[in-house]
Amino acid sequence: MAEKTEIDDVTGVETTGHEWDGIKELNNPLPRWWLWTFYVCVIWSVLYWIVYPAWPTMTGYTKGIWGYSQRQAVKADLAAGKAAQAKFLTAIEASELDDIRGNPELMRFALAGGRTAFADNCAPCHGRGAEGTRGYPNLNDDDWLWGGSLSAIYETIRYGIRTTHDDTRLSDMPKFGADEILEPGQIKDAANFVLSLSGRPGDAASIARGKAVYADHCSTCHGEDGSGIAALGAPNLKDALWLFGSRQEDVETSIRTGRGGVMPHWDGRLDDTLIKQLTLFVHSLGGGQ
Length: 289
Known about the structure:
Blueprint: E1 15-20, E2 23-26, H1 32-51, H2 70-94, H3 97-101, H4 104-121, H5 123-126, H6 150-159, H7 184-196, H8 204-217, H9 219-222, H10 248-257, H11 272-284
Antiparallel strand pairs: 1-2
Helix pairs in contact: 2-11, 4-11, 6-11, 7-8, 7-10
């Protein structure tokens, strides 16, 4: 005689007869749509293993009957991209910076490449928007330590500043305090005078003493009026733009230590064509001369 089916009092669903600590299992089969979906997925996976690369082996992986390789597809796409770029890259390699700038089509390509190169290589220091930060120049303004012309920017990017490259940009501001060239009082007076060049108020007596210190030790590089000399990498002290800060103590630290920041050279790391594109992009940011 067949065993009588038990019906759950709460849900009205028959039970399976399984019970754990008074909890009875209901006989709720999976919906048919779910089962059919599961079966289709199983069949799909088997077909996928047959058609596409799927299983690792001791020497590689199963290739599948179609022999498709996503890696090869990416390589093919990259090769196609390089082929499409080849004419532009060849033209940039053979052209002067001013000629590239005068060619709208070539300039658009150069700016796109330069923007990517900047994001990959320069943004960690100068910022994604090239706005700079303390100790790292803002490339959007028109204040350039070594000049903002295309040729000047190209040389700075290619050879760097105070690097190991034989042709690096090099300007060593003396460490007036660390090397005991000036007394602490003279450094304070010189800082007061330097700040006064950009219209900052200060103690008149200290500024007068600082003017004499400046004339003896600083004017050779920064100019008698403090407007700087780009060929020497000596900044303009009159424009109120300060790389390391404009507080009294910031300027005193610069005089005392000489700072001596370093920008890496990209010659040998980036090819000349990419350096040209990077130069044009930096120049286009708004501060190029």
